[in-house]
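Batch job 17 of 40 flagged for manual review because the log was empty.
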Amino acid sequence: MIELRNISKTYLRNTANAVNALQNISLTIPENSFVVVIGSNGSGKSTLLNALAGTVRVDEGNILIRGKDITSLKDYRRSKWVARIFQNPLMGTSPELTVLENFRLASLRTESKKFHIGTGEKFRKSVKEKILMLDLGLENKLDQPMGTLSGGQRQALTLLMAVMPADNGLDEPRILLMDEPTAALDPRAAELVLKMAEKIIRGYNLTVVFVTHQIKDALHYGNRIICMDQGKIVQDLEQERKSGLTLNEVYQWFE
């Protein structure tokens, strides 16, 4: 379970250009939920995700995961519970390294100073088994540089790398933050990535917070829709309340 207790974040505090990105947000997200966050530019969506990931430190309030207060934890310390996918596939991978080497880096994500390459046969077999679930034929491209793959293929692999267990035996992530993961992709690749994401989410029993501008995706994938405006939650609809919504009704929230 994720709990946000009265969190607030102001950029450029105590200046004439201060921006209230988050204003006293309280939110409880049960495990295995698929929460979609929508809103116009500057509404606070990305700041909310960054606060959960630990890349932005909130000014006030607390963030808890499974009852543990993680408000002061650095992002790499949170990575044993929290995984993240960015808009740009380039941000989630190292293009000059092979697919296998990228997976090895992902397995070491909770390490702050140490690095061991360790891409032996046991690790290769484990990675290949994971990639097989995508059914994209990528399990035969482990020695191919990541940068030679398409954006959709890279984003699908990034999803897998984000949720794979850490090498030091820590718990695998149970929370997946998706920050407009299809924004940089063409429609066909975007559809592929979302289908792969759905498969991975089910396979790993993940709790998902998905930021998107695509209202159709919000209505299709989420069992809960949260609409933000000026750093506040202005709509919070559960599955049964959103099931009859039309696109026009959702667009009215932005007027």
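Reviewer: the log was empty due to a logging misconfiguration, but the result itself is present. The chain has a mean pLDDT of 84. Unflagging and moving on to job 18.
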